[in-house]
Specification:
The complex is a heterodimer of chains A (259) and B (169).
Chain A: H1 8-19, E1 27-32, E2 41-45, E3 51-55, H2 68-81, E4 89-92, E5 104-108, E6 114-116, H3 117-122, H4 128-147, E7 158-161, E8 171-173, H5 204-216, H6 219-227, H7 236-250, H8 253-257
Antiparallel strand pairs in A: 1-2, 2-3, 3-5, 4-5, 6-7, 7-8
Helix pairs in contact in A: 2-6, 4-5, 6-7
Chain B: E1 5-21, E2 31-42, E3 45-53, H1 58-63, H2 75-89, H3 95-102, E4 107-109, E5 113-122, H4 124-151, E6 159-167
Antiparallel strand pairs in B: 1-2, 1-4, 1-5, 2-3, 3-6
Helix pairs in contact in B: 2-3
């Protein structure tokens, strides 16, 4: 399985935040993101000045049946195990569970400079060559999103690195709140494949390679990243559904996707 | 004379700064001021205005990512299509909010700052001109304040502006 090309800083952050479950730091509210259903806010690390995006926002904090923060964290952790490009995520316990019943997550910015795919496309910066270059990762991520039952995919949930090399578009995938136990309400919950949604060419060979690689991820590794998330982020019942469905689908992705 | 004076009209003025974040990951990242967009709705009028720089300093251009560097070297030309889109595709009082939703990353339209306004407007073209005059004044004050705050000095920069207005309903 090909490792993605990340900057040294990004590699360090991916390693650090995969190892770290919950941030112990203070983060400062820098105002609303203003662009999504989860009402997320911009946050800044009080010591390092690092910036990120916290979700859900105050308007969604009282929701108990939707484990958004856990889903965001798990999507990153599972993508890390699969060597795929989801922006690093860590859990944040501030004001939980009093204000935020299921806690919050903080997503890092994948790139120093980014635009949403749709806006980058509208502005004409995604050339046919760059669109073609995104095909392999887009194909791999369709397999990954099928594994985690993410049903909220759209091209606006893809960040484009504005400083990408001229021949190779760097992209990262964000917004995985509507996946996992948002969809799975029982063991062996029937879930279809994620439909193709990105305007980039699909590579069947990459999809097969990705499905086969995910099948080789050890059950123990999948179990570990799920079982380390506790209350208030993830109650026992949805945790059991997530674990059971992930393990059941892990070796079956080629059949689900028909590849 | 009396038949040319309308009743007191209440309305809203919205202002958004438009900037470019050269480093989303760190608070210390340089932020390049690009322009200000304004919307005023009052009585039957809706007006939208944009003022933006027409060039950037060399160090600013160099700080912009490769894929956007050339296109953003003239911010006014880069932003004008978004201004036109907002005027044609959004409802009164929604233009700046919609732009802020679309551009929330490196190219950043700030969530609009909204103030209430109250005026007595003459009928016809004189009323429209008064609305446009007020919009331009508020927009340009915000633009030059943004530049002064960003650059630490109130020196002028090359800029261009445009306004459009139409009946709101």
């Amino acid at each position: 399985m090909k490792r993605r090309d990340y900057s040294a800083l990004q590699r360090d952050l991916r390693d650090d935040w995969f190892a770290l479950l919950e941030t112990p730091d203070d983060w400062i509210d820098r105002g609303p993101m203003n662009d999504g259903e989860s009402q997320s806010i911009r946050v800044e690390n009080a010591v390092t000045g690092m910036r990120g995006v916290a979700k859900p926002g105050p308007a969604k904090g009282a929701e108990e049946g939707h484990c958004r923060a856990a889903h965001e964290k798990l999507a990153f952790d599972l993508a890390y195990l699969a060597h795929l490009s989801v922006a690093p995520v860590v859990l944040w316990g501030a004001d939980a569970p009093a204000t935020y019943k299921r806690g919050r997550s903080i997503s890092s910015w994948a790139f120093q400079q980014s635009m949403k795919w749709d806006e980058a496309n509208n502005k004409g910066i995604i050339t046919p060559t760059l669109r073609e270059s995104a095909g392999p990762l887009v194909s791999a991520m369709r397999v990954f999103h099928t594994w985690i039952a993410d049903i909220d995919r759209k091209s606006d949930h893809v960040q484009v690195n504005v400083d990408s090399p001229p021949m190779s578009l760097e992209i990262a995938f964000i917004d995985h709140g509507h996946s996992l136990s948002y969809v799975w309400k029982s063991p062996n919950h029937p879930t279809p494949a994620q439909a193709a949604y990105m305007p980039a060419p699909e590579h069947r060979d990459v999809m097969i390679e990705t499905a086969e690689y995910i099948a080789t991820i050890a059950d123990a590794d999948v179990s570990r990243v799920i079982n380390r998330i506790a209350l208030p982020y993830l109650p026992p019942e949805p945790k059991a559904h997530i674990l059971g469905n992930l393990l059941a689908r892990k070796g079956n992705l080629r059949a689900i996707l028909g590849i | 004379m009396a038949d040319k004076i309308m009743a007191i009209q209440t309305g809203r003025l919205s202002l958004s700064r438009v900037v470019y974040h050269t480093n989303l990951q760190q608070a210390a990242g340089v932020i390049i001021p690009l322009g200000v967009i304004a919307e005023m709705t009052i009585g039957t009028w809706r007006a939208l205005g944009l003022i933006a720089r027409t060039s950037l300093a060399m160090d600013e251009t160099d700080a912009i990512g490769r894929l956007l560097r050339d296109k953003l070297s003239d911010p006014y030309s880069f932003l004008k299509p978004e201004f036109d889109w907002a005027f044609s595709n959004t409802e009164p009082d929604e233009a700046l909010g919609k732009l802020a939703q679309r551009f929330s990353e490196s190219l950043f339209f700030a969530p609009p700052v909204v103030t209430s306004t109250k005026k007595v407007l003459p009928t016809g073209g004189a009323g429209a001109e008064l609305v446009l005059s007020d919009l331009r004044k508020s927009r340009d004050e915000e633009f030059y304040l943004m530049l002064a705050e960003s650059r630490g000095k109130p020196d002028p920069v090359p800029s261009e502006d445009t306004t459009k207005f139409k009946l709101a309903a």
